[in-house]
Each structure stands twice: as structure tokens, then as C-alpha cells.
Amino acid sequence: MRNTHETETQGGTETQRVTERGTTVAGSVPVRFDTKVAVLLRDDLESWQRLNVTAFLVSGLGTAAPEVIGEPYEDADSTAYLPMLRQPVLVFEGAKETVTAAHARALSRSLATAVFTADLFGTGNDRDNRAAVRAVGRDALDLVGLAVYGPRNAVDKVLKGARMHP
User: With contact defined as beta carbons under 8 Å apart, do 83 and 62 qualify?
Assistant: First the structure.
């Protein structure tokens, strides 16, 4: 990825190339993102469900917040690959109550939010997924996971009570 990061120096600014992991090519100056991408999963999900829910949730972020998508990748043989998120995705877990509270906090802060409900495990396509969510009021959704993107401090407040996924 060929993003740049400007670092202030005594003589002005210094432009450095940074990698997807947020470090300079030389590896000396880490980049701290002002935003955070986080997934919160209910702690009673099976392993396959955790993976499935995480994949579905992060897939929605690029459409609502295109700035989260980095540049396309290319290997040394000039083989092109799709772009991915430009910053790490942090995965958390919590009890059902924690997920429900985080959902309410994310909405109250108007953060970009994706949801996955228990009903979606029984559907097999996007049309039925959307219908399943639409059929239930916001406060009655049986949430098993959510993804949130926004300013780092706001996302941290949304995740209050959650713990890093093991």
C-alpha cells in the first residue's frame, strides 16, 4: 500500500510511506489511526458462527465509509489483488447485554454500524437477511454481533464492558 503519513519536524513536514499495519517502510514510526474499526461478538457463539458473523459485519463498512478501504495490493510479479481495510479490525466479545448496550451507544453516537442478528443464521441470501432485520424493531433485535467504525474515542465508549476476543 502506498499511503503517506506526514510527520512534523523542525523544518516542516516529512512525508513517509506507511504499510497496512501502520508502520513506516523503515519500521521506525508507527501510525496511530484517529479512527477505529471494531467488531463485537456475543460470547455464546460457536467458532464457525464467530468467523461468519465477523466476515459479514466488516463487509458492510466499505460501502458506508469508503475511506476505510485501502489501495489495491500487488505482489512482486505484478499480480493484482483486491484492496482491503486500511487499518486493523479489533474483535471483541461480550454477553448479550453488552452487545445490546453497545448497539444503543453506537446508534446514539451516529456511528457507522452493521448488525447481525440470530435470525440471519436461518436465512441464505441478502434479500432474506434484510427482511429478517426489517421485521424486528431496533430494541427487540436479537443481536449476535455488530461492527462499528468511527472516531477512536467514540468507538471505545461504545465498547464499554466488552473484552478483546481470545
Answer: no
